[in-house]
Amino acid sequence: MTLLALSDALDNLFSRLPSPTVIEYLPLNECANRVLAEDVFSPVNVPSFHNSGMDGYAVRIADLEQHLTLKVAGKAFAGTPFSGEINTGECIRIMTGALVPNAVDAVVMQEETTLNPDGSVTFQHIPKLGSNIRRIGEDVKQGALVLKKGSLLNVASLPLLASLGIASVPVFAKLKVAILSTGDELTSVGEPLKEGKIYDTNRFAIRLMLEKLNCEILDYGILSDDRALFEQTFIQAQQQADIVITSGGVSVGEADFTREVLEKLGEIGFWKIAMKPGKPFAFGKLENAWFFGLPGNPVSALVTFYQLVQPALAKLSGLSADNIAKITQNLTACSAEKLKKAAGRQDFQRGYYYANEKGELEVRPIGTQGSHIFSAFNESNCFIVLEAERTDVEAGEKVTIQPFNSLLS
Length: 409
Ligand code: AMP
Ligand code: MG
Description:
Elements: H1 6-16, E1 23-27, E2 40-41, E3 51-52, E4 56-59, H2 61-66, E5 69-76, E6 90-94, E7 106-109, E8 113-115, E9 121-123, E10 133-134, E11 145-147, H3 158-163, E12 168-172, E13 176-182, E14 186-187, E15 198-199, H4 201-212, E16 216-223, H5 227-240, E17 243-247, H6 258-265, E18 267-271, E19 275-276, E20 282-285, E21 290-294, H7 298-317, H8 321-325, E22 331-335, E23 346-355, E24 361-365, H9 376-379, E25 382-386, E26 398-403
Parallel strand pairs: 5-6, 13-16, 13-17, 14-15, 17-21, 19-23, 22-24
Antiparallel strand pairs: 1-12, 2-11, 3-10, 4-6, 4-7, 5-9, 8-9, 18-20, 20-21, 22-26, 23-24, 23-25, 25-26
The site of magnesium ion has 6 residues, from loops.
């Protein structure tokens, strides 16, 4: 089987994976990190009344043109409007956020006035029409589209909905994801390690990332390398979850049953990607769930999760295409060192990028780039993405970098 380019694998995923259909209505304080299921239009104007942008005095410009000293007819506070009359030659004391009466046409900040002993106020100059007045609907107009279906609800968007008085919104249901690790050598974190065994890093890393992506997690633990056990567990997992994610056993070794069992129980979409790390990666469909088989090496598992599973879950969770596109952002940086690269596969090297003394982006590789060297992640802040056909990169050459998003930070 020839290796599939990552971009083709992603196209394949996006064309096959459906958008969600199950919707629930939730109060705003339960919506963090959920995906909005319908467009939201504003039921009100924001602000809903003309209000003062300053502590100062609300005036009629025509009066100031007659005389720069005005009497003070009363006070307006935020939440407590002035309800009296403002006669010719009068102004009112007004605080930030207070309703601006229709009778006035500007607010002058108090620093530009002098309060006289008799209680009147003298102004230094005549203000411009409407100055320091926040107009009705200046922020959001009634009926305007405020958030599109497929938006991520977060600190940037939820307070906006709150400011409109919207108490609950339709969101897509959380994705249910079954996770499991495969390998006779694996031991759960916290248990003593016997000779020849290693700790199960992948299930731990995958759980952390799924928690960040706000998925519901069903943990099927560690499977020993046993074909019948794989079959039985895959069947169970796909009945309970929307997505099954495994790691290990997807290569060509004698104990690698993942692909075989996927083929028997369901269908393989693609297998083997022209990327490094991460070549052995299987995507497919079981009867009731989508299937992602990550490679066993922890670095490969993490890189393929980041590059393939993350956008796939975004599509399945209902995130819009423009939001999915924001998951990975490519920048250009100068490589500070020589990078080793063989032609053939697209590389995702771990790197650290920074602005040099000229303010230009520079990047240096971290660690030896082996797919078993997980410690390099800890000091990295980006992937150095090297095109499949590219060979060694000399110091000073331009390369594409992808700063880690919040999944890895
Ligand atoms: P496999 O793809 O099953 O052949 O595994 C490839 C390499 O990754 C082997 O060295 C495994 O021991 C290692 N490996 C597999 N699964 C895990 C895991 N969950 N955590 C840490 N290392 C793993
Ligand atoms: Mg294995």
